Amino acid sequence: MRRIFNILRLATRDYLHEWQMSGCFVLALAAVLGPMMVLFGLKFGIVGSMLQDLVQDPRNREIHPVTSGHYKKAWLDQLSQRPDVAFAIPLTRSIAATIRLKSNSSPRILSVEMIPTAKGEPLFEPGAAVPVKIDEIVLSAEAARKLNVKVGDQVDGSLSRRFAGHKERVHLPLKVVGVARPRAFGRDGAFVTLAMAEAAEDFRDGHAVPDLGWKGDIIPDDVRTYPGFRLYASSIYDVSSLRDELAAQGLDVRTRSEDIDIVQRMDHNLTFVFWAIAVIGLFGFALSLGASLWANVDRKRRELSVLRLVGFRTGDIVWFPVIQSLYTAVLGWGLAALIYQGVASTINRMLGGQLANTQEVCRLLPDHYLIALGLTVGSAIFAAILAGLRSARIEPSEGLREI
Amino acid sequence: MGEKILIYHLRDVVKTRETEGAAFRLRVPSLQIALGEKIALIGESGCGKSTLLDMLAMILQPTEVGSFRFRPERGGAPMDISELWARRKYNRLGDLRKECIGYVMQTGGLLPYMNVRENMSLSRRLLGMPSDGTVEALARHLGIERHLNKLPGLLSAGERQRVAIGRALAHRPSIVIADEPTASLDPIAAERIMSLFIELVEELNITVIIASHAWRHIERLGLRRLSHQSQRLKDGTTESIVTG
User: Fold this and answer.
1) CB of A395 within 8 Å of any CB in chain B?
2) Does residue A235 sit at the B interface (CB-CB below 8 Å)?
3) Which of A182, A321, A328, B82 would be B65's cystine partner, CB 3.0–4.6 Å?
């Protein structure tokens, strides 16, 4: 213990005494590591999140029927059970799927499209609220802005029909349980339960909706069919097989599979390019760090020999360069992190506004800082041990007599 | 004093060195140094003085050994150094250096990042010896008391050699080995420091071996001179033979 403490003290004193030389090593390390971190930050920021977003953009996973048909709920329920299907829900007739909304905080009366939704809505952020009860809605960002409402507010929904020769209008208080993110739906829209969409369709068709107290004809007993559906594959990789399978059932669908191909190719190529650069950079980084530490141990051979002359053991001597390279590694990493912070915030400020999303162009997670530290410390210790062992192997008398 | 205790007892120790085709061999047929003796090793530079001293200081492994015994204490049993080398007991050799040997080099040997006091205390700290004023007293003796808190880089060559002598003596080793300790100094300073050095080892009763190229300097100090002769062999090898 005393031996290690003595070595620690000597190595630290030497490092501080040679602060100019130590500073140069720290700078040299930071000069290589800093740009590497910026490069990784860009890879992670651009290729990582933006491509990830493209890949995960629900619109790329969407499968539209080309023509309207007669789809049954049971068939769609069955479809949604498949592992390659993330979400499936029937659509009511679009002409019947509008509702007029009026809020207390805005003079406007807004006519919005109703989109049936349920738990697991792919257009929403994960974990966002979805309407569960018939009188609950999630407004599109645009509609919420125009109505000047926020989550928890109440709006008045109204539907009209011409029934038995005269115009009729029903009102229904609706509770805003959420506002969808802007890219979920660009127009004025309201995400509602399927029951609500069906009720609106029934009302427009002149049928009665007993649950809501709307009068009309009795609904015929036959199984309900829907003209369309909303279908999302689990991932973009499932889209083409799903499309082929639906085509085999005689159902023509529209997908973005060509766009997906492009995105996938770009993801693949960019990832390759960045890895190539990263591997070359890492190699150069390890080489430069190793070379400078090796040279440093060589330079100190005489002093290390003096330590052995006064009786330091060979095993203790190896600690001397290891401790010093540890200082260099940690300080260099700290400086590189500061350089990275400066560059990254500049890049984000300059380019941030040009991006549709609010995400950062250049960013690293705390994990990445730790990985950089681990790599630096690891290769520093490795190089220092190699160099230290080499200097410990020569006979002390040899090192002493060197000029 | 009674029976003579041999701190070093060497028989047929050989060190061969080959540098750029020119071979050099140091041969020690027999060497006996008693505890408390003051030994001078005189010879031109390049005749193998440092080689012998490094072997005695256990920082250089002999090429061939008949026997190499080391007995740093009156009461202790002699140790077989050749066996320690052969069995690669480098840590044991390091411990022996730390406890029993002080070494003064021609120049340098001080750590530039430690002040004079810390340099002189280096071996004492390694051995866990207390700071009991020994170093300060030694510095007073050596006339470097006012430099105790300075870094070696600020001292003159002579002052640095005084510090080196102080470090070699501070932990009270059994033997001090000095390789031309005053060769880099002017003659007046050299003579003064040499006298001081011998005075100190006598006072502390420490065995000393000094290598020098000038006998004149140290003749008066009462040292026993080792016999040393060099010859060039037919195969071009330079052979140096030391006995005593």
Assistant:
1) yes
2) no
3) B82
A377: helix, coil or strand?
A: helix
Contacts of B95 in chain A (CB under 8 A): 311, 313
Nearest CA to A312 among B58, B172, B189, B97? B97
Q: Taking the CB of residue B224, how many other CB atoms lie within 10 A of it?
A: 12
- CB of A401 less than 8 A from some CB of B: yes
ipTM over 0.95: no
The whole-number pLDDT of residue B116 equals 95
The secondary structure of residue B4, as a DSSP letter, is: P
Q: Among residues 277-306 of chain A, which lie with CB inside 8 Å of chain B?
A: 302-303, 306
By CA distance, what is B171's nearest residue in A?
Answer: A310
At residue B75, φ and ψ (nearest 5 deg) are -80, -20
In whole angstroms, what is the distance from residue A99 CA to residue A158 CA?
A: 6
CA of B74, closest CA in chain A: separation in Å? 22
How close is the nearest chain B Cα to the Cα of A294, in Å? 20
State phi, psi for A376 to the nearest 5 degrees: -65, -50
In a domain, B116, yes or no: yes
| Alpha-carbon span A256 to A64, nearest angstrom | 10
Task: Give the residues of chain A that fall short of pLDDT 50.
Answer: none
Given pLDDT bands bounded at 50, 70 and 90, which one contains residue B2? low
Question: Is B18 domain-assigned?
Answer: yes
- CB neighbour burial string for B2-34, b if at least 16 within 10 angstroms, e if fewer: eeebbbbbbeebebeeeeeeeebbbbbeebebb
What per-residue confidence (pLDDT) applies to B7? 93
Q: Does B50 touch chain A (CB under 8 A)?
A: yes
Find the residue in A nearest to B56 (Cα): A397
Nearest to B103 among A307, A309, A314 (CB): A309
Asked if residue B196 belongs to a domain, the reply is: yes
Does residue B46 form part of some domain? yes
Distance of CA B211 to the CA centre of its chain: 8
Cβ of B128 within 8 Å of Cβ of A311? The answer is: no
A13 inside 8 A of chain B by CB: yes
Cα–Cα separations (whole angstroms), residue B118 to B157, B177, B196: 18, 21, 21
Residues 143-172 (B) with a CB less than 8 A from some CB of A: 151, 167
Residues 6+ apart with CB under 8 A from A104: A153, A154
Angle, helices A366-393 vs A314-352, to 10°: value is 150
**A-contacting residues in B 91-120 (Cβ below 8 Å):** 91, 94-99, 103, 105, 108-114
Going by C-alpha positions, the residue among B59, B78, B74, B95 that lies closest to residue B11 is B78
Beta bridge partners of residue A100, listed in sequence order: A111, A158
Q: Is B126 in Cβ contact with A397 (below 8 Å)?
A: no
Total domain count, chain B: 1
Q: Average pLDDT over chain A, rounded to whole?
A: 86
Q: Which domain holds residue B158?
A: 6-243
pLDDT tens-digit series, residues A331-384: 999 999 999 999 999 988 887 766 555 567 788 888 889 988 998 898 888 888
